[in-house]
Specification:
It is built from 10 helices and 16 strands. The chain is an alpha/beta fold. The strands form 4 sheets. An 8-stranded mixed beta sheet has the order 1-2-4-3-5-16-6-15, sandwiched between helices. The radius of gyration is 24 Å and the shape is elongated.
């Protein structure tokens, strides 16, 4: 005996008010990465109450909850991020953050509620379940550190998941839009730090110095030429200088200048090209201004690449459950997501769930102090994730 996947949609709609209540509670009590103590405590207790085998303290505040069915089969990992952002909320909702300077401004409060809702849908059907489910509630996605730490601490072992799923509420698109695209969907991220060292001196006597600020200005401009003149226009890449630090006084040319920024790529060859060009240009620009350079590159996250087979299942499920929805199948975003560390090992699908509603002024972008979304998107995400996980277990 198995379930009609449409029943997941009907049950989700019945739970709508409860899911929204969970989301608003998490929104009111946001916690930053690796500090999600209240959040993870609530999640862990609910999962225990529903009969899951719960492991606490993975990557500090992460939760792993397992449920094994009566029939042998594969294991599906479902991942939900938990952390908030260091933003002072400026909405006027009744459930606004009570913590100054901390806000759920990216939808993770919704992801948490969806995770609980999917678990709530699954646990009464344990006896019908084929294979197993592994719910991963991850800390610190916003700093792109939680997923890798969970992987390092064994989240992909005991048992090793065969497939993985995740979804993100997406305020770039309206309610009723669903992004399900195979191949690369989110870019890999690197950070860079460049130190230019010269010779400081009096601002009125620049000829007696080797000015790292002037060198930095030329370097910032030159770095932009990498995308324009080195990367094939049929491929994608981003280089953004986001921090510049130099000097302490208006009349002193400093000894050094510091540049920091981010690199975003989809293809390994483009990433390698950009890294090599940054190092070469930094050395040569520094030398042109009689300075020295030091370049450091830190890999933050690989690209998120959706598996074709799992994505196809998710797309079919979404079309069956929400036939009026707009299903977008070609999406590539330059934002990054550390779920990639799990999907690098476990084939899966990362979905985007449209959530904005301009008529209700619920269209502020992610990471805005005014961020909010149409909470009906929670039912889309819950039903699709639950039905897709069940379909994978039944068919693969």
């Amino acid at each position: 005996m198995t379930l009609d996947i449409y029943s997941f949609k009907l049950k989700t709609l019945d739970m709508r008010d409860e899911i929204i209540s969970w989301r608003r509670d998490f929104h009111k009590h946001p916690e930053l990465g690796f500090q999600e103590n209240r959040t993870s405590g609530i999640v862990a207790q609910r999962m225990v109450d529903w009969g899951f085998d719960v492991q606490r303290g993975v990557a500090g505040t992460g939760i792993v909850a397992r449920m094994e069915g009566k029939r042998p089969g594969p294991t599906v990992l479902l991942r939900f991020d938990m952390d908030a952002l260091p933003i002072q909320e400026q909405t006027s909702v009744s459930y606004a953050s009570i913590h100054p300077g901390v806000m759920h401004a990216c939808g993770h409060d919704g992801h948490l509620a969806v995770g609980l809702a999917v678990a709530c849908l699954m646990y009464p059907n344990k006896d019908l379940l084929k294979g197993g489910l592994k719910f991963v509630f991850q800390p610190a996605e916003e700093v792109l550190g939680g997923a890798k730490r969970m992987v390092d601490e064994g989240v992909l072992e005991n048992p090793k998941p065969d497939f993985s799923l995740a979804a993100h509420l997406w305020n770039e698109k309206p309610l009723g839009w669903i992004g399900i695209s195979s191949g690369p969907i989110m870019a890999g991220a690197d950070t860079f730090e460049i130190v230019l060292r010269g010779k400081g001196g009096h601002g009125a006597l620049p000829s007696q110095t080797r000015d790292p600020i002037v060198a930095s200005a030329h370097l910032i401009t030159a770095l932009q030429s990498i995308i324009a003149r080195n990367v094939d226009p049929r491929e994608s890449g981003v280089i953004s200088v986001t921090q510049v630090q130099a000097g302490d006084a208006y009349n002193i040319i400093p000894e050094k200048a510091l540049l920091r920024g981010t690199i975003r790529t989809f293809e390994l060859n483009v990433r390698q090209l950009i890294l090599e060009r940054i190092k070469t240009i930094a050395v040569e620009i520094a030398a042109a201004f009689e300075c020295e350079s030091e370049v450091k590159i830190l890999r933050v996250a690989p690209p998120v690449v959706n598996d074709e087979k799992i994505t196809g299942i998710a797309r079919n499920v979404a079309q069956e459950l929400f036939p009026q929805a707009i299903i977008a199948s070609e999406i590539m975003s330059m934002v990054s997501e550390d779920m990639a560390y799990m999907m690098d090992v476990t084939p899966g699908c990362y979905l985007l769930i449209g959530s904005n509603d301009p008529e209700r002024r619920l269209d502020a972008p992610h990471h805005s102090p005014f961020f909010n979304f149409n909470e009906d998107a929670l039912t889309y995400s819950t039903a699709i994730l639950a039905a897709t996980a069940w379909t994978i277990l039944e068919t693969l």
